[in-house]
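pls ignore typos typing on phone
uridine-diphosphate-N-acetylglucosamine + seq
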Amino acid sequence: MSTAKLAVIVLAAGMGTRMKSNHPKVMHPLAGRPMIRHLMQTVAALAPERVVVVVGPGMDVVAQAVAPAATVVQTERLGTGHAVLQAKAALGDFDGTVLVLYGDTPLLTGETLGRMLENRNGPRNPAVVVLGFRPVDAGEYGRLVVGGEGLKAIVEWKDATDEQRSYPLCNSGVMALDGKRLWSLLERIGNDNAKNEYYLTDVVALARGDGACCSYVQGEAEELLGVNSRAELALAEAVVQRRLRAEAMAGGATLTAPDTVWLCWDTELGQDVVIGPHVVFGPGVSVGDTVTIKGFCHFEGCRIEKGAEIGPFARLRPGAMIDEGAHIGNFVEIKKATIEKGAKVNHLSYIGDARVGAKANIGAGTITCNYDGFDKSFTDIGAGAFIGSNSSLVAPVSIGAGAIVGAGSTITQNVEDDALGLARGRFEQKSGWAKRFRDLKNSRKNK
Ligand code: UD1
Ligand code: CA
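k done
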């Protein structure tokens, strides 16, 4: 990557009316975090000297999402050229390359931006480098007017002639500009056009008029997808997921049906992890080496240590910690609980606000009753304990190490180490009772 001085301006003042949302467009998430954060990560990798994000009035959430980058407020949306001008005071006398990005184009790669910066710092030293692309459907994108010596102008679709509208090369919106010329170019942009906006795209023709050279670099249509609607948000999500799956596999995880696994931007997978079909990772999940995850599991905010076996159909919620070699089976929900080494919770259980000691065995249908309607309380299950099926452990309660709880018990008091805890109705048998009952019923029917 280039070592020349770099500043970045990100335009994000639009609400994105077509999203039909109360949230600013750039706050809509991709792989579990606001789309603007994806872009900011790409920007950070370029190690710019300064970053300024142009936001609209009242967009404090955007300012928080991009911190520590500076934000400036564009009070009136008068166009992309006007928006860039709002960053002037924040950039001061910066005279290196200024890269302009759009907050709603979050899939850009550092590799593509690197090529633009190389071009900008190359022998022709162009005043403006534009990132062009050839979308399948060029629609209403601005068009690049290209001549022998590079880029001549950008025409907005609304202002273009029929001939210009037929040009295949479109403006992605991404530009790298010479900081020494930028402000003088922007100050000369007018708004005498179809939208009465100050178009940033006019800088190309203005720079050419000054006798400066302008050029373009081509990018992939996929990474230049702009998000303007919920449908485009879903398309962008698909691209991000494809990238995350490829990274996961390149990192040594097996995804038997990659298209059905949904990853989060921060999902951490160890080596030789095997993930079956239809597994969803929410934010904050880390998985150690050699973990097996069978199909249809849902995870968020949890840690799974080396060699554990999870699923199928397991749900791990925030604060679940599954230690080495533990087994979590089907229809088991774990929340804010540690399942220590080699412990097993294999069937139909809810374990919340609890510790399950090493090698303990939790029978089918065990429930930790952690909530009494007012407070959450803790259940402590000692190492090697055995909880019989269909038991309710009413917290706060502790089951000692090596203790056994009889199946079907409702445990409301602590069970000592190595004791048997039993709390259920006593068994009673009435010989012949069922037959007498049926006979009585039949004799009434026949009357
Ligand atoms: C812009 C380009 C067009 C290009 C297209 C690619 C101009 C004049 N046109 O058109 O050539 O093909 O993007 O997607 O630049 N914004 C502000 N303040 C403003 C106006 C816009 O911050 O006053 C921000 C928006 O929030 C958005 C970005 O700038 O992130 C682009 O604005 P938008 O109005 O969507 O531009 P397009 O008409 O799509
Ligand atoms: Ca747009």
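The pocket of calcium ion (ligand 2) is lined by residues 104, 226, 228 (CB under 6 Å). The mean pLDDT is 96. more later
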